[in-house]
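TL;DR need structure tokens for one chain.
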Amino acid sequence: MSKFVKDSNGVVSDYIAIGASQAVAFTNVSSAESAAVGGNTTVVRIASDEDVHFVVGPTTQTATLNDAFLPANTPEYIGIDPGDVIAVIAPAAGAAGSFNIVEAA
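>> reply
TL;DR here they are.
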């Protein structure tokens, strides 16, 4: 999904403003879930300090090892519906980390 952003002068810009952010602590033992993103959020940047599987959706989500994979230290922009949550789980035994979500404003 691509979007163009206009600055306060109406000029098309090649950046996305940073909105609210949150960090979700996770392990390989069970799925961990974020808080819902804002009511106007349609794009988020996600990043993790450890490899992680993640799933996006409304209300309660449970990540499994069959869900999308995000390698450690590899930020990614993804489309999301307003109010969605993201659930994550580590694929490796004994792994734990922090999964960061930044809303694009």
